[in-house]
Each structure stands twice: as structure tokens, then as C-alpha cells.
Design a protein that fits this description.
Structural class: mainly alpha
Largest sheet: none
CATH class of the domain at 1-79: Mainly Alpha
CATH topology of the domain at 1-79: Four Helix Bundle (Hemerythrin (Met), subunit A)
CATH architecture of the domain at 1-79: Up-down Bundle
Strand content: under 5%
Length: about 210
Amino acid sequence: MSVTTGLFYIFSVVMLVAAFRVITARNPVHAVLFLVLTFFQAALIWMLLKAEFLSIVLVLVYVGAVMVLFLFVVMMMDINVESLRLGFWKHFPLAAVVGVVIALEMSAVLMGGFRVVDEPQVTSAVAGASNTKELGKLLYTQYLYPIEVAAAILLVAMIAAIALTLRARKDSKYVSPGDQVRVRSRDRMVVVKMDATREALEPVSTGAQAETKV
């Protein structure tokens, strides 16, 4: 067994265990952290396959952006874990059937890719080239216009998200930063002078109250 094969088995086992813990962890924060570990193992497997660009993109996009956002949202939300587990075993048979169907479909699709085919002859010039460099040339020459269209769509989506976030809402509390900077200590508290002691009022008798009512 070569070193590459041994590392592949190690990364695969860790990835499968982490993926299993994602769906079995009771704490949502722990589930997100196990998902981050799963993505790291997948990136290492891509690295073994000499697809360094896909490996770096997986780490930067999913681990560096998407998972950090998920972890931030999960930690900011007050999630009641006990309420999420209510009715789990009630819907488990349907979920198990759906999972088995998806697994069979994926197996049927992937089994066709494991057929033994003759590998094409790779010339020395292509073998010495960098995958990232060749992919960059392909993206910015042959697929330049689709990339520009995708960038424009993402820019419009980002502007729309900012506009929706900054819209005026009646239920949101807002304090002007300018007013906070210009605040003065004497405007925050007013000192009212009062006498230290007061004379006690004379109690009113019950008979006098009755005569007053009559």
C-alpha cells in the first residue's frame, strides 16, 4: 500500500465519521463544527487527486464563508434542542425510506463512473502544467462572458440584500451615531432639589370623612 492510498483511507474514514456526527450531534454548534471537519477532509482528498484548485475553493468558500455564517447564525439564535427532537421517531420511517432511495439513486449514478477505461496518453507538456493555471486560462478566455454575467448577477443580488437590510422598519430601534457623539453629561440626568424632611400631615378622623361625604 502506497502513502497516497493510506492517506486516502484515513481521510475517508475521518470524513465519514464526521458526516455521521453531523446528523447525530445533539448540539447544533457541534454539528456545524463536525461539518467543517467534513469539508476539510474532502479538501484533503481533492488535494490527493491533484485538484488543488478545487481543494482551496472548498476551504475558502464553504469553510471560510458559508460555515462561518452558519455558525454565527446558530450561536446568535436561541435554539431549543429539546423542541427540535419532538416527533423525531414519528417521522423517522419516512425519513429512512427517503434516505435509502437517495442512496440507491446515487449508487446507480456513481457505479457507471467506476468502469475501467483506457487512460489517455498525457504528453510531457500537459503533465508539467499547473491545474490552477490552465483552469484560469480556460475561465478567462473561453468562458469569459458567462463569468461576467454571473458576476453582474451576484452584484445585483448583493445590492438588493443591502437595500432590503437598510430599509426603514417600524419595529427596529435606531439611535443616531451623531446624537450619541454630541451627548453631554448634564443632558442625561436632571438633579431636582427637595427638602430633606417634611412635616407629617394630620390624620383625618373617620367622623369628619363621613360628614364630608354627606
